[in-house]
């Protein structure tokens, strides 16, 4: 494996982040990432209360020797943001990934503590903004991402961000194989953030039904919906998703574009959507809204984290050797 900003900054073997996944990521998965040469990240909102969050930080520092990241939703939909920042000042992680808002406050409070600030971006405009605020790296959320995805392919987004900024770029989305990893690294990415292939793992806390769906469905079964949070989000196209549709109705759309009401409308949409996702993730229900990206195409069984990362690295090495062999012919 090549040495990159990601491997050198966090002293890890592989340039891979186990992506933060709402409801899916847990401490056990991050500990497995640490044991197997890469680094994991977990959403702060995966902990039910600020007290649970603080206990989780204590455990992760012990289990991962401080090598882990926290994903913060930094807009007003995260009502616990102030409390989470206070906890993170007490127990600083190796890095933060900020999403869906301005990272300014996070950078001001945590960067002086040695925490690296990585920011989710989907375009050049926002990338330049976070660079000016002092971000350390960009998470290039592309069109293959699970959950809140971008609309630009990695082959365009990664070099576009590299040209527009001086920050390291880490590609997020669409990688489920070693060949996919090689292709993204060849673009100049300093690493990749991989999520969906780890949903159907033994360490994952979600229901057996959710895991089975990740195994049974594929790339063609992924659709984008705005009904969960108001922003485009990739989900498995279950019968229930087909029933309710993927676009907001007239009233929802009107409220989300009204200057006076859109802040409250988005907060309500986000709250209701996340509750639906949470219910489906942990219990059998006909209201199945399962978040995932198209890289589930390459998930064919429920395995452990170690097995998946070993396969991806083996495939990467094989793809690299095959590429070299072709060039020598």
Automatic annotation (TrEMBL):
Transmembrane spans: none
This protein's UniProt keywords: Flavoprotein, FMN, Monooxygenase, Oxidoreductase
Protein name as annotated: Nitronate monooxygenase
GO-annotated molecular function: nitronate monooxygenase activity
Family membership: Belongs to the nitronate monooxygenase family. NMO class I subfamily.
PANTHER family (UniProt xref): BLR1330 PROTEIN (PTHR42747:SF4), NITRONATE MONOOXYGENASE-RELATED (PTHR42747)
Record organism: Bacteriovorax stolpii (Bdellovibrio stolpii)
InterPro entries (alphabetical): Aldolase_TIM (IPR013785), NMO (IPR004136)
């Amino acid at each position: 494996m090549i040495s990159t900003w990601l491997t050198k900054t966090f002293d890890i073997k592989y340039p891979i982040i186990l992506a933060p996944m709402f409801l899916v990521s847990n401490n056990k998965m991050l500990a497995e990432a640490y044991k197997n040469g890469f680094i994991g990240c977990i959403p702060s909102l995966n902990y039910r209360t600020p007290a649970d969050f603080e206990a989780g930080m204590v455990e992760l520092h012990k289990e991962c020797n401080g090598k882990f990241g926290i994903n913060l939703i930094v807009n007003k939909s995260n009502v616990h943001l102030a409390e989470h920042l206070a906890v993170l000042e007490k127990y600083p992680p190796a890095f933060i990934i900020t999403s869906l808002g301005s990272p300014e406050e996070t950078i001001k409070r945590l960067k002086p503590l040695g925490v690296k600030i990585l920011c989710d971006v989907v375009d050049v405009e926002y990338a330049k903004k976070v660079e000016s605020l002092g971000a350390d790296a960009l998470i290039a959320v592309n069109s293959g991402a699970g959950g809140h995805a971008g609309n630009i392919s990695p082959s365009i987004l990664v070099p576009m961000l590299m040209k527009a900024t001086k920050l390291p770029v880490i590609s997020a989305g669409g990688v489920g194989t070693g060949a996919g990893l090689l292709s993204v690294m060849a673009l100049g990415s300093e690493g990749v953030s991989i999520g969906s292939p780890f949903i159907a793992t033994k360490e994952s806390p979600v229901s057996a039904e959710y895991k089975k769906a990740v195994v049974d469905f594929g790339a063609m079964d992924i659709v984008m919906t705005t009904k969960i949070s108001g922003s485009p989000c990739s989900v498995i196209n279950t019968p229930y998703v087909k029933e309710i549709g993927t676009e907001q109705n007239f009233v929802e759309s009107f409220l989300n574009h009204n200057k006076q009401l859109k802040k409250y409308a988005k907060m309500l949409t986000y709250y209701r959507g996340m509750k639906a996702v949470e219910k489906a993730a942990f219990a059998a229900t006909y209201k199945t809204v399962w978040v995932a990206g198209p890289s589930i195409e390459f998930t064919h069984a429920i395995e452990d984290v170690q097995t998946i990362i070993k396969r991806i690295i083996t495939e990467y090495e094989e793809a690299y050797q095959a590429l070299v062999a072709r060039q020598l012919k």
